[in-house]
Structure formats: C-alpha cells, structure tokens
Amino acid sequence: MDVMKYKSSIIVFLLFGVLVFGAFYPRVNFKERESMILHAVMNFLDQAHFTPKAVDDEFSKKVFKNYLKSIDGAKRFLTQKEVDQLKPFELLIDDEANARTFEFFDLSVDLLEKGVDNAQTHYESWIQKDFDFSKSETIEFDFDKKSFATDDAGLSEYWRKAVKYEMLSRIYDITQDQNEKKPEVLLSKKEIEDKAREGTKNMYDNWFKSMSKLRRSDRFEAYLNAITHRYDPHSDYFNPKEKQDFDINMGGKLEGIGARLRTDGDYTKVVEIIPGGPAWKGKHLEVNDLITKVTQKGDVAVDISGMRIDDVVQKIRGKKGTTVILSVKKADGEMADVEITRDIVNIEETFAKSLILDIPDVMDNVGYIKLPKFYSSFERKDGNSCAEDVANEIEKLKAAGINGMILDLRFNGGGSLRDVVDMTGLFIEEGPIVQVKSRERESYVYKDKDPKVRYDGPLVVMVNSYSASASEILAAALQDYDRAIIVGSSSTFGKGTVQRFFDLDDAIRGGTEFKPLGQVKMTMQKFYRVDGGSTQLKGVEPDIVLPDSYSFLKTGEKEYDDPMEWTKIEPVKFDQNAYIVNNRQALRSKSNTRVQANSDFQLIIENAKRLKEVRDYTTFPLDQSGFETLMQVRESDADRFEKIMESSITDFEVKNLKVDFEKISIDGATMEKNQDWIDGVQKDIYLEEVLHILKDMSKS
C-alpha cells in the first residue's frame, strides 16, 4: 500500500467520523469558543486515539489530579480549603466533559486567580521583614511530599520560608563572591542582606508580573491538556500560535525578521540577530535594542509596552515580502524607527552539520554528522528535509575520503517519521525500516525503496537517554540490520508512539467567529522495530554503554504519568549487505576495558552518583550556618568533577570541511558559533572513545 495514500485514508476516515458523529447525535448549542474546542477535542480522542478511554469516574479522578498538579503543583497558591471547594467535582468532570460544561473549570479559575493575588500579598508582606537566619528550620522542595496549606496562615508560612530561602541563597552567593574577589571595601552584614533582599524582590516581582499576564485561555489549555494527558503524555492541545511555533521548530524555517526576543521589564529586548535573516541584512536592528512600538507598514503604530512576549512575536512575524516598522530605544538612549521587509529565516542551529575528526595513531579522517532533530517542512514548496541534508553531508564527507562515520543523535528528541525512514535508507540497500500499527488495524511497514546506498563504511550512531522517537527508530533499525554500532546511555528515551495533528476547525460546522480553534496533537499509532519489538518505555539499548551523568537518574518515558505500555508484534523479514557488524561482543569488551582504565569516565560515574544524591535531597536548612555548610559540601564535591570535559583532548584534531568555509565565514557571529562548536567537540571524551571503537571495527 502506498504510504501517502495510507495517511490520507486515515485523515479522511477521521474527518468523516467526526461529521457523522455530528449528524447522528444532538448538535451542541455552542455558546462559547471553549465548548467548541472541548467538543472537537473529545470527539477526536474518542474516534482516533490509539487507546481510547472510558469517560467515567476513573477518568474524572485522573483529570482532576492532573489539572490540580498543572495549576498549583508546588502548592503555593491554593489552601486545602480551596481544594475542598473543588473536591466535589472530582467524580463529575466526566459528566461535564460529556455535556461540554465548565462549572469545575470556572470555579478553579476563580480560586486560582484569587490564590495568586493572595500569594503575592503574602510575599510582599514577608519581603519587607527581617528574618532570623539563626533559627533552625527547613523547607521541602519535593512538592509530592507536601500537603496543601491547611489555611491562609499556613500559606503565609510557606511564603515566609520561600522568601527566606531565596534571601539565604543570595546572601551566600554575595558573601562567597566577596571572599573570592576581596574588594577594598567589604559590604557589612546589613548591606549584604539588603542586596539579597533587592535581588529576591526583583525576582519575585518579575515572576508575579508574568503570572498576572496569564489569561483564562492559558488556564483552559491547561485544563484541556489534563484531559488529553489522561490518554497518554504526548497528546496535547495546541492553540494557533503554539502550532505555528511547533511548525517552525520542526521545519527550522519561519517567515519574519530573524531576531530572537525576550521580555525586559515592560519592553521587548532583542537578544540575538539571526545571521542571513532580514534584520541581519538590514544592519539597523541591533542586539540590546528595546522595542517599544510595532507598526505594520501603512497602518497605525501599536504600543507594546507591558505586552506578553507571544503577542509581540505575533505582531512582528508576517508573510514574506510584507514590511514591519519597529520603534526601538538604542543602548545609548536614542530612539529610532527600523523598517524591515520580512523574508524566510533559516534557523541554522537546528540543521545537520558535519566535521572531520582525527586522532593520530587511533583513527584519522572520520566523518562526524551532528543532527539536533529530525526536522522537516516537506509540505511547503520551499521546505527542507533533514534526510536530504544528511545525504548532502554524507556526500561531502565521502568526497573528503573519510575512513569511518559517526552520526550523533544525542539529545535529539525526534521529529519527522518520513525523514527517519529515508535517512535510515541511506545506509542500506532497501528494506523495511519500521512497523507502524494503528488502533484496530494491521501493522503497516514503512520501507526504504531506494536501492542506492549513500554510505557503506563503518558507522557508529551515538545516542543518550534523551534521544527519542525518530532517533530510536533509526538506531533500532540499524542495530537490527547489524549495520551500525549503537553507543550511548543504558537506554534511549523510550517514546515508541506516533502523533498527528488534526485541525479542530474541520470538526465543527459553523462558528466562524470563534475560529481558528487550534489543533490537537494525538497519539494514533505505535511503532515497532523490524524484529517486532517496541521501543516504548524500554527504548533502544546500545551495543556499547558509556557512563554519563544521567546513569542513576530516572529519565525518559517511564517518568511520565500514564505512559502507554510496551507491546510486541510479529517481526518482518529484513536483510542488508552494505556493511555488516559481526563482532559486537568483542567491540564491547575492548571498549569496557578502555572505559574502566579512563579516569575521566570513572569520575563521570562518581559524578552520576552524586547527582542522584543531589536530586534525592529535597529538604533544605533555613538557618545560615546549616545552609552554608550544605552549600560548601556541595561545591567541594562539584569541584572534583568540574574539569571533566573542560580541557581539549590531546592530539584530537577537529576541522571543518573546506566546502563549508564560505558559509561559515558569512559574519563574525557565525564564525564564533562555529568555533564554539569545534571547541566543544574537542573536549568530548565520548567522541574520543567512539574513534577507538571505529578503529576496532576497521580491524575486524
């Protein structure tokens, strides 16, 4: 069956199903946009989610718990009294979801907004007062161990401790800084406390200011996601702006001016100009400029003072060829209007890139490809594909005469299913890559149909516990095919599910004045290895495990609430002859011997144990003596591991390909980023060990 036809049939089936639902059941009398959104989300989840749930009392209890955790997981706004007001709805959320009503949600918003205001009142009271830093007491930061404050006095006590902790932290930092720098004039104890108080006040003032900008729609999205997460952790509601951001993140392209922004007080500050973008070409917008107004050319200027950053971004982004005028305050105080014509902006740091690695007498001329994510925007005429980009990097490396290749997928959270199938096919002749199974359907096999092999030499794929989804598909397939050695953490992330977006507008007749409604990203399928196993929860276990800082921490899919279970299906036939790894045990044994003899790797193991202890330690002293003792012990322990991966590895040569020189030299900022990347690679002891593994592979 043709893959694209298969996808289309699913979408047509789903849209038809939603319309049929509307035809055979009473039409909902939508009074609000929220009712329309909830109606569409519930219908999609019921008709298309891989594991639909009964909307019953058990469903209600889970959503109640999820939602309460999302709105006040730290238990800093609501008291048990307010929670008790919500408690009667614990078994009624299913009824409200089915009726598309919001009595529970409305009450929660009212209580939460009052709770935030009340919390700010408590904070503002305590920040003005002096603290007894000799008093022996503690604060708990594992919020699962905490209960909601019994009453308002208990909530005030929480804020007293929270403010005291922040001040203690700053007092310690200021004192340490003073002891190290030894200025001529030392700050007195009172001056240190005053400075700590000022820093604490600035932090909390900004935090409460950002809280005040949250809208009912933000709370509603939290409520919707408490519902979708009852089905699985990766099904989510996306408002139109979030979907736009997701597409930009996936594709590595946007239409705009090419500047990164952040809130700075009441203003929006330019923190980076993206090389090659319209702002960079214009040369008039600069880092540290404060944007005060935004004008669409030919329209009236809009004052953006105090505006939320996401609203500002929406006003500055726009279609290619349109013009926006930014009124900015320069670093010297001068005001200026900067006119910029929007264009396509490439976010280069998300793209595949390559280097040549050499360690004399170990392995020379090794190709290294770093892939941060499986990006794709194939639906656009000018879109890009990470599979095509990696193929191009392979061709460049082959032209340089490489003796081996490393594909680095560490911290790669996944992305395009189509691209991972195509990319895996670059290393084999042709054949099945991954099996995908929908609800109540037979599994479908995604195949590489191109018999051409782009690279047929020794290959190592690097992963860690944050390599997820598409990264796991590629690693699993090349492992099953005996095509590559997988090197990394004890297992990858463990996300073995496939999500698709569905536009809620397509599920609702009419209601034009409320649209766009947003989209729901929904888990529709699970993927399986060609050997029939799943990566869900278990992840991919590398052929060679190298110790890292996360070795003793619980990470990945198993950390989530309500993850989908691990299952297995029948294997499919697979075979390849491009390059066969047939000595895994010997390679593993040699690597283990080197790791055990490597003092840096042994330090990493010790550091991983320390990090586990640090994470498990959640109760902090609030007396100055006890706090200082704890911090000094922690800093002393941390100092032992500070030098890991800080020094360049002896004789490790890292260089750019000659064909990339022109692109790298576009401007100073690009050259600096490239040098930072090279410097980081030169300190990476994992890459050093992988070069030794490649040497062992070449000898076998």
Account of the 3D structure:
This protein is α+β, with helices and mostly antiparallel strands and 700 residues long. The strands form five sheets. It has a seven-stranded mixed sheet with strand order 20-17-16-13-12-11-22, sandwiched between helices. Helix 1 (3-24) packs across helix 2, helix 13 runs parallel beside helix 14 and helix 17 packs antiparallel against helix 18 (624-641). The chain starts with a helix and ends with a helix.
Sum up the structure in keywords:
about 700 residues; alpha+beta; seven-stranded mixed β-sheet; 21 helices; about 45% helix; disordered N terminus
- The number of strands is 22
- The CA-CA distance between the termini, in Å, is 40 Å
In what order do the strands lie side by side in the largest sheet?
A: 20-17-16-13-12-11-22
Global shape? globular
- Count helical runs: 21
Which value, in Å, is the CA radius of gyration?
Answer: 28 Å
Secondary structure: helix percent: 40-55%
What structural class should be given to the helix and strand makeup? alpha+beta
Mean pLDDT rating = 91
Strand content: 15-25%
Largest sheet: 7 strands, mixed
Uncertain stretches of 5 or more adjacent residues: 1-30
